[in-house]
Amino acid sequence: MSTLETTRVEKKRPPPVKVFSAQLKTAAVSGDGWVVRLDRGRSLPVTLVWMQGTVLDVQLEQNTVLLMDETGTFAVQGVNNIPRGKPCLSQGKYVMVMGVIQAVSPEPVIRAVKMADLSEKTAIHRQMWKLEVEELQHVLCSLAAGMDAAPTVICATEEKPAQ
């Protein structure tokens, strides 16, 4: 694949969706991405995620860090390849990471595309994170529900079988 083709493929990827580690643990494979189960039987397709958490362990020789958010732990791979990502790679730092889902079980694994250190204002970032995730997911589902044409992001309601 040429560089131009690769760039076009990358540009078609939808923006990252903010998610919690626990939501990824219950995600299912769907086409080119994953479907994350939300509350009230709703689901949201995702390929690129935005997550935040505290660095628990750094394994530079394995190109991996282990993070923990409010709902559980998740691994981030490819950290040595992130421009200006090294300052984030210290135990105890609060960081954001955007990446592509690689696996969801037994523990979510994402391949990092971007990382940033949020430690300077950890308290406010940590307090706002839960609200940001819930709000974005609600907005995406509300927008999808109001569209007539096939939207890029679809929130589905799981139907219960008839009894």
From TrEMBL:
Family matches, as InterPro entries: NA-bd_OB-fold (IPR012340), RMI2 (IPR032245)
CC annotations in GO: cytosol; nuclear speck
Record Pfam families: RMI2
Record GO biological process: DNA repair; maintenance of rDNA; negative regulation of double-strand break repair via homologous recombination; regulation of sister chromatid segregation
PANTHER family, sorted: RECQ-MEDIATED GENOME INSTABILITY PROTEIN 2, RECQ-MEDIATED GENOME INSTABILITY PROTEIN 2 RMI2
Protein name: RecQ mediated genome instability 2
Organism of origin: Cynoglossus semilaevis
